[in-house]
What we know:
Domain Ketoreductase: 7-187
Family: Belongs to the short-chain dehydrogenases/reductases (SDR) family.
CATH class: Alpha Beta
Number of domains: 1
Number of strands: 7
Radius of gyration: 17 Å
Distance between the termini: 43 Å
CATH superfamily: NAD(P)-binding Rossmann-like Domain
Mean pLDDT: 95
Shape: globular
Largest sheet: 7 strands, parallel
Protein name: 3-oxoacyl-ACP reductase
Amino acid sequence: MNRFAGKVVVVTGAGSGIGAATARRFAQEGASVVLAGRTESKLRQAADGLEESKVLVQTADVARLDEVENLIRAAVKRFGRLDVMVNNAGTAVEGTVTEASPEDWRVVMATDLDGVFHGCRAAMPQLIKSRGCIVNVSSVSGIGGDWRMSFYNAAKGAVTNFTRALAMDHGRDGVRVNAVCPSLTRTDLTKDMYANHALMEKFAERIPLGRGAEPEEVASVIAFLASDDAVFVTGVNLPVDGGLSASNGQPPQA
């Protein structure tokens, strides 16, 4: 497939996991791709092997609006336009509301929620010009609760509804706004979970497809939502969860 020939895509949190897989997927389908994140070495590793003339590595902390605005300016300066904004950067803190700290709350909100707001705000004028689209990376944690993840749940819940509202506000501008809602996915954030075999067995029992996702599997759905194959899809928060949300997280009956 070559669905994104001539298109320019910005992916935040592109140094690893879902972000890196997404940047590669868009590049494979012909896009010029801007890989953004806080650590240049990780971004360059993620960009290794991609066509140099169609790749830009740009450090940016999504928690800072000025850095995200500079990211969008750099993308347009290099490639002349912007067609797709993928707001993927995220972090998580485990603990109850009394165990995790106010500082933890601010870190999670600054990255997971403010970062999406900054990306959408900075990219929107360019996307209106190109009649482009946004794909936010929310989570099944944004459409339901988790044990000991209330800060993350709150941030992702806000992203989920922010996505719906932006789709309503900017549909007449020709800009589509959707989100993917992954469940357990093999990334740097979940490597400790994957190392806990007993825990992974419990997760597998709750997921109808019997396993967590690979980053490339989430990336393929992001690419679908950004493509003309989804030209009449907007305001959707699409679970990419192996059926977890459909089963309400219940294990199979004996």
